[in-house]
């Protein structure tokens, strides 16, 4: 960010002949320099006080980066991280300059309603995923008279941010949080929650709403039947995650029927390939599975690139964990690894920051710093 620096010149730095022969002019220059320094300092102090940042520190406010923008040039991925700005920073906007902000972009912080930072950080990341934001805003434009759902509340929140006259500021997601607490009992409190669990719930729930409204538009019964939520309204029964990932629903005869993918699948769904090589007959078997996010372990002094490399490390299956080889018709030692077969448009990474420690008999938080580049090259793809 823009940082103002000033230098004060004293008369002791001037040659003696100038110090005594041009007293009036030197005094005038010093007066103007100090006055200029005072004005710049007051502007900077006003801007930083509004956002509670010390004068001697640059403005660096970051949120957990969960979502990565992936280019259609595999195996490269584009990383985006966005910060959350404070409430009263119109002065800061003027000090930085309007030309420093991208056109048609807004940077608004979300008000915390008692430990709702888990949802605010995810919503910030989702808002700056343009394909997702465009689909949500498109949904609002097409469904102006729809009943209140979590998706409609999210669309209203995104629309409120996108139509703000100011470039920066803050907004209260009160309506969205209220609806979230009605939809999910685990979130109906003021306790800290897991951001990854919230992201999974939100993505799955949005997909269910889209499928239910699509079936209603076709005149058919809602997929999965209907249930009554705790607020008394009829809603769609929550299908399992496997059904969502595989894009399958239940037909009239109880068989699995393939469903047309939604824009949630188009944005977030990728394909993993699990490769297993029998160490006895050298036969390699592979199995594909869909995913919405990748969960990677976090080590000390690591980076996103290293985490993804470790995700695809070869694992040896032995002892009680042997692999049943169809070619050998028996359990054999084998080597297994996971690789990315198809990258999603938006790659969501879950950094596993909780690890079970036997000496403490509990889970502890792993607070190691994880470095990530602006452009991420993936080496664990099938084509690598």
Automatic annotation (TrEMBL):
Pfam families: UCH
Main enzyme class: hydrolase
InterPro entries hit by this protein: Papain-like_cys_pep_sf (IPR038765), Peptidase_C19 (IPR050164), Peptidase_C19_UCH (IPR001394), USP (IPR028889)
Record's catalysed reaction(s): Thiol-dependent hydrolysis of ester, thioester, amide, peptide and isopeptide bonds formed by the C-terminal Gly of ubiquitin (a 76-residue protein attached to proteins as an intracellular targeting signal)
Residue ranges of every copy of the USP domain listed in the record: 108-384
Gene Ontology process terms (BP): protein deubiquitination; proteolysis
Keyword tags: Hydrolase, Protease
GO cellular component: cytosol; nucleus
UniProt EC number: 3.4.19.12
Single GO MF descriptor: cysteine-type deubiquitinase activity
Family designation: Belongs to the peptidase C19 family.
Protein name (record): ubiquitinyl hydrolase 1
Species this chain originates from: Culex pipiens
Biological classification of the source: Eukaryota, Metazoa, Ecdysozoa, Arthropoda, Hexapoda
